[in-house]
Write a structure and sequence with these properties.
There is one protein chain. With about 140 residues, the chain is an alpha+beta fold. The protein is about 25% helix and about 20% strand. It has three helices and seven strands, in the order βαββαββββα. The strands form three sheets. A three-stranded antiparallel β-sheet has the order 4-5-6, with no helix packed on it. It has a two-stranded antiparallel ribbon with strand order 1-7. Strands 2-3 form a two-stranded antiparallel ribbon. The longest helix has 17 residues.
């Protein structure tokens, strides 16, 4: 069908963030009542309405497994010691600072063909955008 997971960003837009959280909470509670245990994910479409003031939110799939967004979120949690704040929908560090991410497992460019992982990491470090444990920010790479 040609569909390819291109990535994710966290958190989602604040305009509909709490609606998504409430919908996922409802799905989780229903799954638990039916005996499901463990991790799940819900894929949504968020489509702006013509008036520009609201969004149509539609759940399109429930995955009873770790999905494409699991690894980036768990990496952020593991590196920072922070947690998801259910009241805001943000990821908050123990210091109170908020962190965000953009993740993809489908970054491609012809210029990078044949590049060794060590070359990429050296380039990232030289550019100063590598992950810093002091600031809890920067680029993290996985499965190079």
């Amino acid at each position: 069908d040609g569909q390819v997971f291109l990535g994710c960003r966290f958190p989602c837009d604040a305009v509909y963030r709490q609606r998504l959280h409430a919908a996922c909470q409802c799905v989780g509670e229903n799954l638990a009542r039916k005996g499901a245990r463990g991790r799940f994910g819900v894929d949504f479409l968020a489509i702006p309405r013509d008036d520009g003031d609201d969004w149509d939110i539609m759940a399109i799939e429930i995955n009873l497994r770790a999905g494409g967004t699991t690894h980036p979120f768990e990496t952020l949690r593991g590196l920072t010691g922070g947690s998801y704040d259910t009241s805001t929908g943000n990821f908050t560090l123990p210091s109170g600072e908020i962190r965000y991410y953009v993740a993809s497992d489908n970054v491609q460019h012809a210029q990078n063909l044949g590049m060794l992982p060590s070359d990429l990491l050296s380039t990232i470090s030289h550019a100063g955008v590598h992950y810093s444990h002091e600031t809890h920010s920067g680029s993290v790479f996985h499965l190079l």
